[in-house]
Structure formats: structure tokens, C-alpha cells
Specification:
heterodimer, A: alpha/beta, Rossmann fold, seven-stranded mixed sheet, 9 helices, 34% helix, B: alpha+beta, Dna Ligase, domain 1, D-amino Acid Aminotransferase, Chain A, domain 1, six-stranded antiparallel sheet, 38% helix
């Protein structure tokens, strides 16, 4: 079992012929994700060559538009690798075509674009993950995005994180210790994103296969504090958390647009305190997840 | 990207907001000339990317042109929050009947631009929010409709009971909103928005922060960047698509991804060391990026050890390994180097490093502890 994606997910790739899109489409097909279509305007009718997990050729048909791709293939999820200037339109194109899950990998999307996109996807009941996120993976079933497949293994832990490579680090430590994952979700570090911690916690709480959750947050905003209260009030499953940016000086941007300490809200200390008060186990180092999760799975 | 006060005011003026005239000067003599031209008392204001200029002594009222020269001499070259003042704005001092605050930020929780207005202007809005939150009114804008007139009027009446002033303030707010959207801002504020004794509503100070992700499509705004007033190492990093922030420690860090970079700095501290910097080489990195990253870090004399922490996903670790080898061949390092590297193309990367006599570990904690030790051990 898993959340948001599983072995039946029918994925289409927006920007399939671009540098990142083509590289990661090959990786997704090789992992076993059912990539049913690609979209690149002007390349409709061509085929994208990829190789499946069985080593056999698994070509992906390319379409000019998302709506024609959905009509022809029944795709129900989309992953976006287009340049930042086109990302907002790509998300809305997928939502308008009736795709239920949209994962936007693109980094550098202007935040004002997202103020237009967010109500558009919400009104259509679409789940958007990202932008500026690594996507998600349900080990052994499906991977949508750029999370390296080989660092994951199936198991009972749900993982949710605002960062990309930090997610890999924690998942890698868990896998090395023999602790597998139901689904690993990277929600992205931008100020306005489609899916937040609470959306993921809710899904993990409902998923019968998930027995514990690992959550990685960072400085800036109050999403982690809100998530902590949600865990206290609505979750029976144990949660372990980590906050990156304890050594960050106030008011400095640290790469993620989201990671700004503004005023008193959003410091690492504040977030860690919220975790502690709401019964969330606190990992001081990424490696600490291993022991803390182990203890909670017993 | 931060804009200077005078730049923000130019933009506001272009959108119809009334702002006092002003001149930007870099020499005390020019401040004198400007003050003489304006006649009457002037304000001399430091143009620097730091808040709290007034408290730091960077904003002065001057009765005469001689005084303007004297104050400009004091302010030019002054350090405010580590930044040197290189420009001052000279503007006629306005007569003020009342001061208000009007600002817009992109709010994460509401996922929209949100107006904040308060009749308690002229001071730190964070202070007002903390002490008297009921004196601030918020309004989230639906960007599909913009700030509609009736919404602007509600905000206007929150500031002024007089309908003429409320209307004038409402107009300013619509103009500010237009400027905010056109400039790709994440923050724009007028503080204070004043009413003159003659009943005119005037923006006495303006501040704008532009979303860096907007700059590619707004070349006219990018052109306003004042690299002179930024940290030179950070400018250099940005020119090479790196995110670099200098800190005070002695362990130089090169990491891919902001979250992992912060976690690496935290781990350096956990093991008793102090990070010398935040440096994110980002995804899709090429060897050239690594060369530039090493150049930036070795330029800091405080650095006693260099730590690479690379988790290859979209980043290919062999690219990083090639970058390290190239950089060291060109400029041999004077401090110890610790490399942690795992993920995409790890085997190739390890071989590249080994062929050049470099060792690497695949474990983050081991590498961080080693770097801290090389930098002088835990304190």
C-alpha cells in the first residue's frame, strides 16, 4: 500500500524531450512506473524510447497537448519538467485536462504565478505536489519525479519532506538500516506549494500499510508548527521529525525561497519546541531517524 | 532582490503614487547642492539594503544645505548591519499631519498577496503586530480580480474616517498593488504613508523586495540591481549559479540542495565545529560549478578544512568528482579536504577521485566529524 501513487498510476510527462525530462523519464520507466504518454508541443506523433525494468523496449507515445494525451491514454497523473517560465501554464493545462495528480519538479517558478495556479487547481479538486519538489516514490510500485529509486525499499514508514537531497539522505539511512517506506513525498520548498505536510500526514494516517511517519522540515513559515498540532489532535500513528537550519542566521535566504526566518516565526528552535510539545520524536541528526523510528515500530 | 528606497519610489511614482521629489547623491557636496535647489529643510537618507536605518543614524533631518552636507558626510561610508552606505537620498522634509502603514506581502498560509494596513505608521510594523495586533487590518487579494475598488475603500476607511482621505488612500493602495504585480514583488510597502497639512496623501518612504525568480522575465527590474551594495562573494556566487552565504566559522561546506546544506551545517555544529558558509551547488551541476565553489571557499582565510557533502539525485556525482580534480590541479589546496559523496554514478566518481589520490566516504556523519577535527577539533 501507499499514498497518492501506486502500481496502477498512469503517468504522463510534460516536457518529456527536454534535458531533465528525458533523463528522468528513462529512470521512471526503468523503475517500473507506467509512463503512458509524453507531451512536447510540436513533437506529437513521435515516440520516446525507454527501457522497462525487464530490459525490454518500452516506448512512450508523444502528444502535442495534455488533453489529447489524456484522451488517448487515460493518464491520471502528470509530472512536469518544463522551464520555470512555462510551469504555471503547464500545471493549469494538466488540471484543465482532468489529471488528478500533478507533480511539478520545476525549480524557480515565480511565486506570483503560483497565486494564480493555486485557486485554479483547488477549484478542480486536483492534487498538486510542488513546484520545486523532487516528486514522490512508492518503493516497488511507482516513482514520479527524481527521487533515486535504489535508495528506497518497500516497508512501513511514510516519509514527507520539504527538501530534496535531505529526503534522500534520510531515506538512504533508513534503507541501510533495513527500514522500508510506503511512500516518500517531497512537498517542495517554495512559499506557495500545492500539498503541505498536513495533506501528507492525513494520507499516511489513512493508509493501512503506513505504521510510522518521518517528517523533515526546515526554517521559515509555520507549516511545521501547524503539522505538529495536526499530529497531536488527529493522528494515532507515531511521527518523528527533523528541522534543518538550526545554524542559519536570521533573515538570510538559504536557497529555498521558503527558508526565510521572518521575525519571530519560523526559527528551528520554535519548530523543534512545537514538535516536542505535540509528542513528535525529534531527530537531532538525520541518522537519529533510524533509532527513533525503530523504537516506534516495535 | 532588494530595491533601494529611491528605486521603489521611482516605480511607485510611475504607477501614479504621489511621492516627494528627491535626488540620489554619492558626495557630500552634491547633497549640499541638492538641498539648496530644494530650498527649505531636507531629509538625508542612507540608501542601503538594511532595515532600521533610522535607528542606526542613517536618516537625518537637516534645516539648511550646510547641515545637509555635514550629515551626508557622516552617513556616507557609515556601516549599517555590515553594509557600507554608498548613496544617500536628499528629499524635501514633508510636513506631516498623520502617518500610516500600507504593505503587501505574498502570504504562504493564504497563498495570495495580502495587504496589511495600519493607522500606526512610521514605526516598525512587526512591533505593531506584536503589541497591538488589532491596529492592523489584513486583506488577501484574489489575483484574478485584483484589489477591487470597494475592497480598497474598506481599507481606506480603516485608515481615515474622512471620505476624501479614504478615497485617496484607496487609490494609493490600488496603485501600490499594480506596482507590486508589475515588479514581481514578494514584498512592497509604503511606510509612512502621510497626510500633509494640505490634505494630500503622500508616500514618504517605499520598500520593495523582488522575487528572484521574476528577474529572468523582467530585465528592466534586474537592471536596477546595485551589486555595489551587496556582499562581493555573494554576487560572484550568483553569477555562477551558486547560492553562497558567508558565515563566521572555519569549516567550508559544499553541498547540493538547500535542505541538505542546512542539515550539513547543523551537523558541523553538532560535532563541535562552526560552518564557514552556506553553499548550495544546486541540481544538474557541472564540473565548472564545483571549480567556482572551491574558489569562493578558499578565498575565505578563516577556512581551515573543506567538506563536500554530495547526495546525487539529479546531480551526478561524477560531475562533482571531475570538478574537484580539475580545481585542485589548477589550484592546489592549502587546507585539508573531506569528501562525502553518494548516489547517481557513485562508482565512477569514487574511481575518478581515487585515480587522483583523493579519498571519499559515503557516510555523512563520518565525513563531518573528520572535517571538524581537521579544522581544529571540537571546541
Amino acid at each position: 500500500m501507499s499514498v497518492f501513487i501506486n502500481r496502477d498510476t498512469r503517468l504522463l510527462v510534460q516536457g518529456i524531450t527536454g534535458r531533465d525530462g528525458s533523463f528522468h523519464t528513462k529512470q521512471m520507466v526503468e523503475y517500473g512506473t507506467r509512463v503512458v504518454a509524453g507531451v512536447t508541443p510540436g513533437k506529437g506523433g513521435q515516440q520516446f524510447d525507454a527501457v522497462g525494468p525487464d530490459g525490454k523496449a518500452a516506448g512512450v507515445p508523444i502528444f502535442n497537448t495534455v488533453s489529447s494525451a489524456v484522451q488517448a491514454t487515460g493518464a491520471n497523473a502528470s509530472v512536469i519538467y518544463v522551464p520555470p517560465a512555462f510551469a504555471a501554464d503547464a500545471i493549469m493545462e494538466a488540471a484543465a485536462a482532468g489529471v488528478a495528480l500533478i507533480v511539478c519538479i520545476t525549480e524557480g517558478v515565480p511565486v506570483l504565478d503560483m497565486t494564480r495556479v493555486y485557486p485554479f487547481v483547488k477549484e478542480r479538486g486536483v492534487r498538486l505536489l510542488g513546484p520545486n519538489c523532487p516528486g514522490l516514490i512508492s518503493p516497488g510500485e511507482s516513482k514520479v519525479g527524481i527521487i533515486p529509486g535504489r535508495i528506497c525499499t518497500p516497508g512501513p514508514v511514510g516519509v514527507v519532506s520539504r527538501s530534496g537531497t535531505l529526503t534522500y539522505e534520510v531515506v538512504y539511512q533508513l534503507t541501510r538500516a533495513g527500514i522500508g517506506q510506503t511512500t516518500c513525498v517531497g512537498i517542495g520548498g517554495d512559499p506557495i506549494n500545492g500539498t503541505n505536510f498536513i495533506d501528507c500526514l492525513e494520507a499516511f494516517e489513512r493508509d493501512p500499510a503506513t505504521k510510522a511517519v518521518a517528517m523533515m522540515g526546515e526554517i521559515g513559515g509555520t507549516d511545521e508548527q501547524d503539522a505538529a498540532r495536526y499530529v497531536r489532535d488527529h493522528m494515532k500513528k507515531p511521527v518523528v521529525g527533523f528541522i534543518a537550519g538550526q545554524t542559519a542566521p536570521p533573515g538570510r535566504r538559504m536557497g529555498h525561497a521558503g527558508a526565510i526566518i521572518s521575525g519571530s516565526a519560523g526559527t528551528a528552535a520554535e519548530k523543534i519546541e512545537a514538535f516536542e510539545q505535540c509528542g513528535i520524536g525529534v531527530a537531532r541528526r538525520p541518522i537519529d531517524f533510524v533509532e527513533l523510528i525503530k523504537a516506534r515500530l516495535k | 532582490m532588494n530595491l533601494h528606497e529611491y528605486q521603489a519610489k521611482d516605480i511607485l511614482r510611475a504607477h501614479g503614487v504621489t511621492t516627494p521629489p528627491g535626488e540620489v547623491v554619492t558626495e557630500p557636496a552634491a547633497a549640499y547642492e541638492a538641498a539648496r535647489r530644494f530650498g527649505g529643510p531636507v531629509m538625508v537618507k542612507a540608501q542601503v539594503h538594511a532595515g532600521g536605518r533610522g535607528k542606526a543614524g542613517g536618516v537625518k533631518f537637516c534645516k539648511t544645505a550646510d547641515e545637509a552636507r555635514e550629515k551626508a558626510t557622516a552617513i556616507l561610508g557609515m556601516q549599517i548591519k555590515g553594509l557600507t552606505v554608498k548613496k544617500v537620498l536628499v528629499a524635501p522634509a514633508a510636513d506631516i499631519a498623520s502617518e500610516a502603514y500600507v504593505g503587501i506581502i505574498v502570504d504562504r498560509a493564504r497563498k495570495a498577496p495580502v495587504f496589511m494596513v495600519s493607522a500606526a505608521g512610521g514605526i516598525d510594523i512587526e512591533e505593531v503586530a506584536a503589541k497591538t495586533p488589532d491596529k492592523i487590518r489584513y486583506h488577501a487579494v484574489d489575483v484574478r480580480y485584483g484589489l477591487r475598488t470597494f475592497e480598497a475603500m474598506e481599507l481606506g476607511f480603516f485608515l481615515y474616517s474622512d471620505v476624501k482621505l479614504a478615497r485617496a488612500a484607496a487609490k494609493v493602495m490600488q496603485q501600490l498593488y499594480a506596482a507590486f504585480m508589475a515588479t514581481g514583488c514578494s514584498l512592497a510597502e509604503i511606510n509612512p504613508l502621510v497626510v500633509t497639512p494640505g490634505g494630500e496623501v503622500v508616500a514618504l518612504d517605499g520598500k520593495m523586495v523582488v522575487d528572484d525568480n521574476e528577474l529572468d522575465r523582467l530585465p528592466a527590474i534586474e537592471a536596477l540591481r546595485d551589486t555595489d551594495s551587496e556582499n562581493p562573494a555573494e554576487v560572484d556566487a550568483r553569477n555562477h549559479n551558486l547560492t553562497f552565504i558567508k558565515l563566521d566559522g572555519n569549516v567550508g561546506c559544499v553541498v547540493n540542495g538547500a535542505g541538505l546544506a542546512m542539515a550539513t551545517m547543523d551537523l558541523v555544529k553538532y560535532y563541535g565545529g562552526e560552518p564557514a558558509n552556506f553553499l548550495d551547488i544546486g541540481g544538474s551541476s557541472n564540473p565548472e560549478k564545483v571549480v567556482n565553489a572551491l574558489r569562493l571557499i578558499t578565498a575565505d582565510p578563516n577556512v581551515k578544512a573543506i567538506l563536500f557533502n554530495i547526495f546525487g539525485g539529479i546531480t551526478r556525482t561524477d560531475d562533482v568528482a571531475n570538478g574537484i580534480v580539475t580545481a585542485i590541479k589548477a589550484n592546489p589546496l592549502k587546507v585539508p579536504l573531506v569528501i562525502r559523496l553518494t548516489g547517481t554514478n557513485e562508482e565512477i566518481a569514487m574511481k575518478i577521485l581515487a585515480d587522483s589520490g583523493l579519498a571519499a566516504s559515503s557516510d555523512m556523519d563520518t565525513a563531518v566529524q573528520q572535517a571538524v577535527k581537521f579544522a581544529g577539533g571540537s571546541r
